[in-house]
Amino acid sequence: MIYGLYLSATGVLANSYRQDVIANNLANAETVGFKRDLAVFQEQRTEASLRGLSPAIHSNRVLEGIGGGIKVAPTFVDHSHGELEQTGNPLDVAIQGSGYFRVQDQNETRLTRDGRFTVNGQGYLALAGGGQMVLDDKGSPIKLPPGGVSSIERDGAVNQNGQMVARVGLFDVPQDAKLTKRGDAMFAYAQTKPLRPADGVLRSGFVERSNAEPTNELTALLDAQRQLEANANLIRYQDQTLGRLVNDVGKIG
What we know:
Layout: H1 3-27, E1 37-38, E2 41-43, H2 47-51, H3 55-58, H4 61-66, E3 70-72, E4 76-77, E5 84-86, E6 93-96, E7 100-105, E8 108-112, E9 117-119, E10 125-127, E11 133-134, E12 151-152, E13 157-160, E14 163-167, E15 170-172, E16 179-181, E17 186-189, E18 196-197, E19 201-204, E20 206-208, H5 214-247
Antiparallel strand pairs: 1-4, 2-3, 5-20, 6-19, 7-8, 7-11, 7-15, 8-17, 9-10, 12-13, 13-14, 15-18, 16-17
Helix pairs in contact: 1-5
């Protein structure tokens, strides 16, 4: 394979992937509790380097210095907190500081920072968006007596007519990097030990906005498009040069 074409092709593939990641961030800029993704890349080692061969014998020292292009690394999730937006709804709760709500998603337990709560038809506290049941500090679904919720306090206490009837669980994980996205601003976590209580506090009447800022994401998207086009142009120029080399130079003499 022509080395220049290969390097340009890796640039096209990498920036095409980067565009997809940024486009997903933009699509979720208004999704409560969403955490944006960051496309991460790393240098691709040359074949001689991967196989431990001597560049002087099996390759070219100049080309070895250029490297083997770039490749996609595992996507990094930015877990920084989004801004709090006031809604005035007493069942909307935002986490100020660290922590996640724990919810029951069918037969799986998920973590989320989406605090848009509601009371479902069976009297359980659930997520307004997808209906997943919210779990208390013991990991059990929160069943509420008839009468409605009057407030949710900073420590998670759910009050009804001035009496605490339950406590919303707020949990933390040792390593955010081990959280895996599962859609709807929810995460899966491979538990090797019980989740620990979080240090954050709850703010009733607020929700946490997505941490994807549209202006920054759009700027990054335009940059990825420019880099993709530049690499695509290099492929075209090299193809034209090779065409002239084969069709014109080869005819001399």
